[in-house]
Amino acid sequence: MNMDFMLNTPTKLLFGRGKLNELVEQQMPGKKALLLISNGKSVKVNGTLDRVTAQLDKAGVGYVVCNNIHENPSKEVVMEAAACAKQNGCDFILALGGGAVLDAAVAVSAMATNSGDLWDYVCGGTGKAQPLQHAGLPIVTIATTSGTGSEINCWGVISNHETKEKIGFGNPILNPVLAIVDPELMRTVPAKYTAYQGFDALFHNTEVMISRFVNVLSEPIALSAIEHIAKYLPRAVKDGNDIEAREAVAYGSTIAGLTMQLTSTTAEHSMEHAMSACHYDLPHGAGLIMISNEFYRFFVERHACDGQFVKMARAMGMKDADKPEDFLTALADLQKACGVADLKMSDYGICKEECDTLARNARETMGGLFAANPCEMTHEDCRGIFEKAYR
C-alpha cells in the first residue's frame, strides 16, 4: 500500500441536519458577498435563498445575488459572474447550490482578482496554463445537492463551448474557507437527479480506489463513502424525504471531496467531460453512468487491480465477493435499483460515429487523468469503451 500522500484541508466543514441554521454564527471572510446561485428556481422556491439572506442580514453582511450559473457551467458565465463581483465590490463569494454552482465558484473566485480570460489559466487543451498572479476571493459553500464534492476542495470543471472543451480548473489557494452540508436542503432534489448526482459521488470514490495513486489514507475513506452511497442511494431516489438516506449520500459525496485531494480520479471523468463538452444538456452523472459498466469492465478483464474491485464489491453489499467481476454485478444492480440502467447516449444526440472524436477529446483536454488508470488505456481502447457503451 502506498504510504505517500499530501493532505491540505483549510476548509471548515459543518456537516449534518440543520447546519444551515449555524451560518449566522460563523465568521465570514468579508463584508460583502457575491451570492452565487443557479439560473433555476429551486433555492428560491424551496426557501433556501431566503434563509441564507436572512442570516446574512442578521450578521450584517451585504450581498449581491448573481443567478447566471447553468448546468455544465461555461467560461462565459464564469467571466460574467466575476465581473459582477468586481463591479459591486464583493470581497468574498458565497456559493449556494449544486455541483455547477460549486464548481463555478472556484473559477469565479480566481477571475474576480486576476486579469485576462479564464482559459489563460486553464491547464490542458487550448488553455494557456499561466500561473495565477493573485489569490482568489475567499469562498463559502453551501451545498444543496450530493454529487461533486466541490464544497470542500479547490477544483471545478468548466466548459469552453467555442473549443468544445470541458476541463478541470483549480489551485490549492482557491480552497473554500467554510462549507456547510445540510442534508435537509436536499429533500426537494428530483429522483433522477438524485440518482445522477449520487453516481457521480460514487464514481469519484471508485475511481480513487482503482487509481494507481490510491494510498493508505484515501482507500479506507473511499470505501466508507462507497458503502454509504451503495446502501442509501436507492432509498434517497425512492423517497426524497428519507433524511437518513439523504444524510448518508451527502456524506459519501462530501467525503469524495477529500479522497480526490488525496488521490486523483481516473480517465472515466475525462471521457465523460468529452461527452458533455459537446452535448451541453447531458447531466454529468448521467454520462458517467452510461460509460461506467464498460469502463470498469476494461480493467476487470485485464486484472489490473483485482483486489480493489473485490474490496469495492464487498463495500457495496456483496459480503462474499471474491472475484473482480463481482463489482460489475454490484454496480449493475445499483443502477437497476436507482432506475438508471437504461440510459442511452443516443437520447442526448450522441452518435456512434463520434466515439473516436470523444476519445481524442478526452485525452487532449484531460489526459492527465489517464496516468492515474491502473493500466495503460490507449486511444483505441478508449474509443472501444465508448463504442461498447453506446446505445
Q: What does it look like?
A:
The structure is a single chain. With 391 residues, the chain is α/β, with parallel strands linked by helices. Helix content is 46%, strand content 12%. The chain has 13 helices and eight strands. It has helices at 42-45, 48-59, 75-87, 99-111, 191-210, 218-238, 243-262, 267-278, 284-301, 306-315, 325-337, 355-366, 379-389; strands spanning 12-15, 32-38, 62-69, 92-97, 139-143, 155-160, 165-170, 178-181. The strands form two sheets. A six-stranded parallel β-sheet has the order 1-8-5-4-2-3, sandwiched between helices. Strands 6-7 form a two-stranded antiparallel sheet. Helix 4 links the parallel strand 4 and strand 5 (139-143). The protein is globular, with a radius of gyration of 20 Å. The two termini are 38 Å apart. The model has no long low-confidence stretch (mean pLDDT 96).
Secondary structure topology:
Layout: E1 12-15, E2 32-38, H1 42-45, H2 48-59, E3 62-69, H3 75-87, E4 92-97, H4 99-111, E5 139-143, E6 155-160, E7 165-170, E8 178-181, H5 191-210, H6 218-238, H7 243-262, H8 267-278, H9 284-301, H10 306-315, H11 325-337, H12 355-366, H13 379-389
Structural class: alpha/beta
The strands making up the biggest β-sheet line up spatially as 1-8-5-4-2-3
Shape: globular
What string gives the helices and strands in order? EEHHEHEHEEEEHHHHHHHHH
Query: What integer is the average pLDDT?
Result: 96
Counting DSSP H or I runs of 4 or more residues, the number of helices is: 13
Compute the number of strand runs: 8
Helix content: 40-55%
Query: Which stretches of 5+ consecutive residues score pLDDT under 50?
Result: none
